[in-house]
Amino acid sequence: MIKLIASYNDEVARTVLENAPYNAKYTSHQIQKEILHILSNKVRKHICEEIGDSKFCIVVDEARDESKREQMALVLRFVDIHGFIQERFLDLVHVKDTTSLTLKQELCGILSRHGLDVSNIRGQGYDGASNMRGEWNGLQALFLKDCPYSYYIHCFAHRLQLALVAASREVIPVHKFFSKLTFIVNIICSSSKRHDELHAAKTDEIVHLLEIDELETGKGANQIGTLKRAGDTRWSSHFSSVCSLINMYGATLTVLQKIIVDGSTYSQRGDADSAYNTLTSFEFVLILHLMKDMMGITDILCQALQKQSQDIVNAVQLVHSTKTLIQNMRDDKWEELLKNVKSFCEQHDILIPDLTASYVARQGRSRHQKDHITVEHYFRVEIFLVTIDKQLQELNSRFNDQAMDLLSLSSTLMPKDAYKNFDIAKISTLVDSYYPEDFTEQEKINFPFQLQHFILDVRQHPEMKNLSTIHELCRCLAETKKSKVYYLIDRLIRLILTLPISTATTERSFSAMKIIKTRLRNKMEDDFLADSLVIYIEKEIAEKFSSDSIIEDFKSLKTQRMEGPPMTFVFHHGGKFKIDKSGYLCYEPDNTEVLMGVEADTLDVFFVKGYYKELGYAEMNNYLWKFPGTLLDNGLRRLENDADLLALVRDCKRNHHLINIYFKHVVSKPHVVDCMSEDGDDVLQLPTIPELAEKLNKDHNDAMSQPYCKTTKKSP
Question: Is 418 in the same domain as 434?
Answer without folding.
Answer: yes
